[in-house]
Design a protein that fits this description.
There is one protein chain. About 30% of the residues lie in helices and about 25% in strands. The protein is an alpha/beta fold. Helix 5 links the parallel strand 6 and strand 7. Bound molecules: nicotinamide-adenine-dinucleotide.
């Protein structure tokens, strides 16, 4: 069989995610290995076309990576019938209108999360994609992390017995930008530009929870802006109008209780930037981005609460690492490969726009819970 080539229009590739994760670590890595292998033994090669706002920056990227085409004209790019996929890693606020144009042009669409800024806008995208019959996908990168893959394997093997609870800790200190420059873009801290912790991270937590433990039934959340003033890329002060931390409790179908703290105003005292502790009747696990440690029922110590005596037990030392059995892979690339194979085979991608809308439903329910100070059932807002 001759090899096939798929041309991918990539918008937002000058950004943090678009450049490193999607262009360099995914599409160019696939290209440089000669494409991905198809079931019949032939290969599917990729050919990126860069789209963005600044011609000089795009030209520089194209030159650096040996990419033949780049443009600042989205409409012209979309009218190119030889390109079948549109990818979007722009800032969130720019996404919906670009995706609608791509769908209208008959492109399959893969996008960063959140797919839009609201449930309503997300549903508009779901409807447009369904009507056009395109194959839609949204980034679910956390599911492909080695630590979460180990956790999934433990769940599937029945290791935990009955799962009781999940505790997630995510976050790190994001510098304000006055003395030390911030390590995240300033739009992340402005609600009017699509920023905010809940909008950013509840989309991730929704697919992590629904794919590992059960769909979210209710949310009780408190979203706050701990740092009210920050300094932008030009060193100018601005008001942080978006939440920079969110403390959430999620009740899942099946009865598991998940509690996840997300914060850009916390200093790390963890093995990894995100960790999930899962406790079950038969065993527990703590999974991070890479590692996963476990403690079985029969290895569980019996601590006794006694504030009069210093702790002598090494609690951390009582856990065992789950070994790395698979080759370490970039999660974004792993999902890209699955998406490309789905498009090539003309079948639906598992993590579609509808999953993206469920993520936005959790965002809206979380924000409503925080604003109204109550537990919000999912689906209430529809
Ligand atoms: N999957 C993940 O783990 C993850 C992590 C971070 C961000 N994201 C998502 O990726 C997207 C991009 O985030 P990022 O951190 O790469 O942001 P970024 O600011 O680094 O990049 C934004 C990109 O959008 C482009 N853009 C288009 N219109 C713009 C405008 N009006 N103002 C500013 N930039 C504009 C920029 O040129 C740039 O290419 C967001 O939707 C974000 O939610 C996902």
């Amino acid at each position: 069989m001759p090899n096939a080539v798929v041309r991918i229009l990539m918008n937002g590739v000058t950004g943090r995610m678009g450049y490193r994760q999607h262009l360099v670590r995914s599409i160019l890595a696939i290209r440089d290995e000669g494409g991905i292998e198809l079931p019949d033994g032939s290969r599917l090669q990729v050919e990126p076309v860069l789209i963005g706002r600044r011609a000089d920056k795009l030209a520089e990227l194209a030159e650096r990576h040996g990419i033949a085409e780049h443009t600042t004209d989205l409409d012209a790019a979309l009218s190119d019938d030889t390109a079948s996929i549109y990818f979007d890693a722009q800032i969130t606020g720019e996404r919906k209108k670009a995706i609608l144009k791509a769908i209208a042009a008959g492109k399959h669409v893969f996008t960063e999360k959140p797919i839009a800024e609201s449930v309503e806008e997300g549903q508009e995208l779901v409807a447009a994609a369904a009507e056009a019959g395109i194959i839609d996908g949204v980034v679910h990168d956390k599911l492909y992390l080695p630590g979460l893959l180990k956790l999934k394997r433990l769940i599937d093997s029945g290791y935990f017995g009955r799962i009781l609870s999940v505790r997630g800790e995510f976050g790190y200190w994001v510098f304000e930008g006055d003395i030390v420059p911030a390590q995240r873009p300033s739009w992340n801290y402005r609600a009017e530009d699509g920023g905010g912790m809940v909008l950013d991270m509840f989309c991730h937590w929704n697919y992590v929870l629904e794919n590992l433990f059960g769909r979210v039934r209710t949310v009780t959340a408190k979203a706050v802006t701990h740092i009210p003033q920050r300094w932008d890329e030009q060193g100018r002060p601005y008001e942080a109008t978006a939440d920079d931390a969110a403390y959430g409790i999620f009740e899942l179908e099946g009865g598991v209780i998940a509690q996840i703290n997300s914060s850009w105003a916390v200093r790390v005292d963890r093995g990894e930037l995100v960790e999930f502790q899962v406790d079950g009747t038969h065993g527990s696990a703590v999974a991070g981005l890479f590692g996963c440690r476990v403690q079985h029922r029969m290895q569980t110590p019996k601590p006794v609460w006694n504030p009069d005596l210093p702790t002598e037990e090494d609690f951390r030392g009582q856990w065992e690492q789950v070994p790395d059995l698979d080759e370490l892979r970039n999660g974004f690339r792993a999902q890209w490969e699955q998406y490309l194979l789905d498009v090539h085979a003309g079948r639906k991608h598992a993590y579609d726009f509808a999953a993206g809308v469920r993520g936005l439903q959790l965002v809206e329910a979380g924000l409503r819970s925080s604003a109204e100070g109550r537990t919000v059932p999912l689906g209430e807002q529809e």
